[in-house]
Amino acid sequence: MVNLKLAESEYRFMVVVWDNEPIESGQLVKLCADKLGWKKSTTYTVLRRMQEKGLLKNEDTVVTSIVPKEEVQAYESEYFIDKTFAGSLPLFLTSFLGGKTISATQAEEIKRLIDAHRG
């Protein structure tokens, strides 16, 4: 079973992979140094951990994702709403919007999403 629970640093690493895959592991080390300020050993440690979690594969020094970004984002979003708002999407939206207003286009898009996911 894939473990989708990621620490912030693991998620940032995965974004580098998702944005550049398939990527040679040596190039991944360079990108992580540039984008995350990581040393080679840190990159390989996190790469190994993401392989153990079932998120990445490293075959012939080419790194690719097994789990798409959208799946991890959906899990993280649901986890956050469950933890912070007791699973209540309306409470989340109320808190997120605060006193802000949204455009008619944004409101219509949200309504379309709700209608598409209504059960």
Which helices and strands appear, and what pairs or packs with what?
Layout: H1 8-20, E1 23-24, H2 25-36, H3 40-52, E2 56-59, E3 62-65, H4 69-85, H5 89-97, H6 104-117
Antiparallel strand pairs: 1-3, 2-3
Helix pairs in contact: 1-2
What would you note in describing this structure?
This protein is 66% helix and 8% strand. The chain is built from six helices and three strands, in the order αβααββααα. 13% of the residues are buried. The model has no long low-confidence stretch (mean pLDDT 94).
Which H/E pattern describes the elements?
Answer: HEHHEEHHH
Number of beta strands: 3
**Strand portion, in percent?**
5-15%
What coarse outline follows from CA principal-axis ratios? elongated
Helix content: 55-70%
Jot down its keywords:
mainly alpha; elongated; three-stranded antiparallel β-sheet; 3 strands; 119 residues
Can you give me a brief rundown of this structure?
The chain is mainly alpha-helical. It has helices spanning 8-20, 25-36, 40-52, 69-85, 89-97, 104-117, and strands at residues 23-24, 56-59, 62-65. Helices cover 66% and strands 8% of the residues.
